[in-house]
Design a protein that fits this description.
With 293 residues, the protein is an alpha/beta fold. It has helices at 9-19, 72-84, 108-122, 144-154, 199-205, 253-263, 279-288, and strands at residues 31-34, 37-40, 58-65, 89-94, 129-131, 158-165, 179-181, 195-197, 207-211, 235-237. The two termini are 24 Å apart.
Length: 293
């Protein structure tokens, strides 16, 4: 079995589903898991027009990342997004191969499966956190604008919010300079024209949900009381309703990998990271021998 053995029914279903994904042809059958159940992935959903439903438009927060591995802090953040009322669902989107991240050596399938295990063992069946494979099995990672455009084309009845941290709103970062694939590029054209700057379109066409990160302050002014207007017209702070306080998590995947490499005891246990990642993810890391080098 691809996944570690768990008593819960969701993990049995996941094991059966993901075991086939070792075969390339099986990648055509993609799934999206919500805790306790498997659903067709957005890429295989029948396209639905806004006119075909009487429900209000759903708000989906897209939470992308390497998730190498997914941690309890990631899960705390996505659950707080739901608790805030700013989104109806959150989709975790593990990235594909990243040439710009040479240290990202864990295969996309392993990172995707860990996200599925985390969601299916941490949340109740009706809690609206899901995992999407729209990017992680692509030959190369998708640019943010291309990812959101693909989701918008597949789901025109959904409003997508891209989740970023306040660390992306600092002096040395500029979302307006982010790039996207040049759809007019063809073989034989100059390589430096393969991508185009699309950040301005990204900021104009999509909403951003900004999570405050410790140590990354965004300056506010009288003219810009949120501090976000200078970055773009559709940025919104993640704020809690009904007097709740956002529960922050500052545990990085980098720290997990570092502890895993240096702190396995003689019995092969991973006590240094226990409690920091979901127990199922911990078992998967141990079984697959991840982060051991």
């Amino acid at each position: 079995s691809l996944l570690p053995s768990f008593p819960s029914a969701p993990c049995v279903a996941l094991s059966q589903a993901f075991g086939a994904w070792r075969q390339p042809q099986a990648l055509r059958v993609s799934c999206m898991a919500s805790s306790g159940a498997l659903f067709p992935h957005p890429r295989t959903h029948e396209r639905t027009s806004a006119a075909s439903t009487n429900y209000r438009r759903r708000r989906v927060a897209v939470y992308g990342g390497a998730f190498d591995p997914v941690t309890n802090s990631h899960l705390t953040c996505v659950s707080e997004i739901i608790h805030s009322g700013k989104a109806d669902e959150v989709w975790l989107v593990p990235c594909g191969k990243r040439p710009d991240k040479p240290n990202l050596r864990t295969p996309p399938l392993d990172r995707y499966v860990m996200c599925q295990i985390a969601v299916n063992t941490s949340f109740s069946p009706d809690f609206p956190i899901k995992v999407s494979d729209i990017e992680c099995f692509e030959p190369v990672a998708m640019f943010t604008y291309d990812l959101l455009c693909s989701l918008r084309d597949l789901h025109p009845h959904i409003d997508f919010y891209f989740v970023i941290g306040s660390d992306w709103l600092q002096a040395d970062t500029n979302i307006s300079k982010w790039q996207a694939k040049n759809r007019n590029w063809k073989l034989g054209d100059p390589e430096d024209q393969k991508n185009v700057t699309s950040g301005h379109k990204l900021l104009q066409e999509f909403d951003f949900l900004v999570v405050k990160r410790p140590g990354y302050v965004v300056q506010k002014t009288l003219d810009d009381p949120t501090g976000l207007r200078k970055f773009g017209p559709r940025l919104h702070w993640l704020s809690m309703e009904h007097g709740m306080t956002f529960i922050e998590g500052n545990l990085s995947s980098t720290e997990i990998r570092k502890r895993k490499r240096s702190a396995m005891d003689e019995d092969g246990r991973l006590q240094a990271i226990e409690g920091l990642v979901p127990v199922g993810v911990l078992s998967y890391i141990r079984k697959q021998g991840l982060y051991s080098e």
